[in-house]
Amino acid sequence: MASENILIQVDGLSRSFGPLQALDDISFEVRKGEVMGFLGPNGAGKSTTMQILSGNLAPSAGRVMIAGVDLLDQPKQAKALMGYLPDQPPLYLELTVDEYLRYCARLNRIPAAQRQSALDVAKQRCGLTEVGKRLIGNLSKGYRQRIGIAQAIIHSPAVVILDEPTVGLDPIQVREIRHLISELRDEHGVILSTHILPEVQATCDRVQIINKGRLVLSDTIAGLQQRMRGESLWLTLRQPPEPAALEKIVGEGQVESLGDGHFRLHAHPLELLAERVVIEAVAQGWGLSEIRPERMSLEQIFVDITSSEHETDKVRLVS
To answer: Cα torsion for 305, 307, 311, 316, to the nearest 10°?
Structure first.
């Protein structure tokens, strides 16, 4: 893509709080049409990154560009190009939906002649058309999250930052918010900060994982799915041989004997390994009853990467 499609550019972002290094040399990009999932365990630096990107916290070092505008040098101009939904939506419960969104339109300096149109579009996009005259305090949490997203997009920003937008919602509300986030990619670049892993798989195009203040993985969802396709082969035999017979088949790979005729085989490529095992099992009468690739879950990948003591060796950057 052309460089003008880069809506968020983060270069060498660092932040320290006294002796604590909360962020250490973070760099990434978000392009127009992308939803990027931002993941990290508690204390990883995720919230610090969101505060810096939204302009609420200054970095110790590094640069943040919002649609080509430097957030530190031109904060007003850069903030005008972004919409932000914190984990607790900034709502006034005593106002109606229309009153609140009209107030947000004024805060974002939308000209008076365009405010009603902007309000109507935001309500329509967020499924709020029927509740405009209702008090926010009388609406469900799902509707309040929708209102929070509406205030973030009412001024049609280039960038939308959503921090935990589905926490506490029921499954139907979660599905509705996911659909809304997916629609936002048509006109915006979106960062979705969440600890809910299925959220990333269902909604995002890319994923960044941060741990101990450092970026430990940056990959596309397609790349993650490739990681999850299979790392080992599960094998069940009714008449199992000695492990040495299987070790001969896998060569430089590894054989785990799990008892009761169950084995886990590690070798690449898995397709070729499975073919060799089937041929030998039939020829030797081992009674092959099950053979299948074992798939890693996103949770397993997340835990493996964030619990590693050598996370810097695991970074995979995809341009």
So the answer is: 10
Summarised one tens digit per residue, pLDDT across range 178-234 is: 888 888 888 899 999 987 888 888 899 999 999 999 998 888 887 777 666 657 889
The first and second tokens of residue 151, run together, are 């205030």
Integer Cα distance of 125 and 119 in angstroms: 10
- Torsion angle of C-alpha atoms 25, 181, 5, 219, degrees rounded to 10: 50
The identity of residue 15, as a single letter, is: R
Question: What single letter denotes the amino acid at residue 272?
Answer: L
| Residues 9 and 65: beta-carbon distance below 8 Å | yes
CA separation for the pair 297, 311 (Å, rounded):
18
- Alpha-helical (H) ranges within the chain are 46-53, 75-79, 97-107, 112-125, 141-153, 171-184, 197-203, 221-228, 243-250, 270-284, 298-307
Task: Select from 60, 17, 24, 56 the least CA-distant residue to 40.
Answer: 24
Residue 56 CB neighbours (<10 A): 11
pLDDT digits (tens, 9 = 90+) for 99-136: 999 999 999 999 999 999 999 999 999 999 999 999 99
**Alpha carbons 179 and 190: distance in angstroms, whole number:** 13
Q: Which domains does the chain have, with CATH numbers?
A: 1-81+157-229+296-319 (3.40.50.300), 231-294 (3.30.70.980)
Does pTM surpass 0.90? no
Beta-strand relationship, 35-39 and 189-193: parallel
Nearest to 139 by CA among 162, 165, 173: 173
In our burial notation (b when 16+ CB lie closer than 10 A, e otherwise), range 85-108 reads: bbeebebeeebbbbebbbebbeeb
Q: How far apart are CA 163 and CA 50, in angstroms?
A: 8
Of the candidates 262, 261, 265, which has an alpha carbon nearest to the alpha carbon of residue 231?
Answer: 265
